[in-house]
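Final report, section 2: Outcomes. Of the targets proposed, Putative 4-hydroxy-4-methyl-2-oxoglutarate aldolase is the one most frequently requested by collaborating groups, and we therefore present its record in full.
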Amino acid sequence: MINKNLCLQLSQFGSASIYEAQGATGALDSGIKPLSHTMQVFGPAFTVDIRPGDNLMLHYALLHIQPGDVLVVDAKGFIEAGPWGDILTEQAMVKGVAGLVINGAVRDAHTIKSLGFPVFCRGISIKGTAKKQPGKVNVPLCMGDTVIHPGDYLFGDEDGVVVVPKQDLSTVLQATQSREHTEEMYREEIQQGANTVDLLGLRDTLKQLNLA
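The predicted structure is given below as tokens.
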């Protein structure tokens, strides 16, 4: 319950702010984007490792995933088939799944968007998949240079997706709140005539580069 409350508070901030606040770490690569720019996702990760071009393990995962979980799928970046579509979306919504983040493609994009189910993916493909290959659930996944452990928290919006280790939620929340407070002061000072060079202490760097 504590982590759920912390997650909800942290979800009020943008993914970029969370990423910066936790030391510029945890971002998934920029190729993973929301199907619609208004989509937002947050919650603990239920991880699934699947074979490219096969979605058997996604059907299996939906038997075990819990309400509020984010389904995080490593399809190895394969985008020439969409292992996720409208029927799986319907089932995920009935189960209370918070959203999907997939290192791969989806299809039935129009229907998914009309249903309002948050999907973050690498691409869209008209092609379907087989349902034969084994895989793994609730194992660590690596997407780009970011490792996602089962139960880690994901926060995604138009800017992208950031992963926060579950044990760091409280610390990252405090750091994000502090960063937002500082930026709000910057905005107020800029309205009063201040500039970002002075606010960020960049004059010495500019002088070193003969840009003073």
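The longest strand covers residues 41-49.
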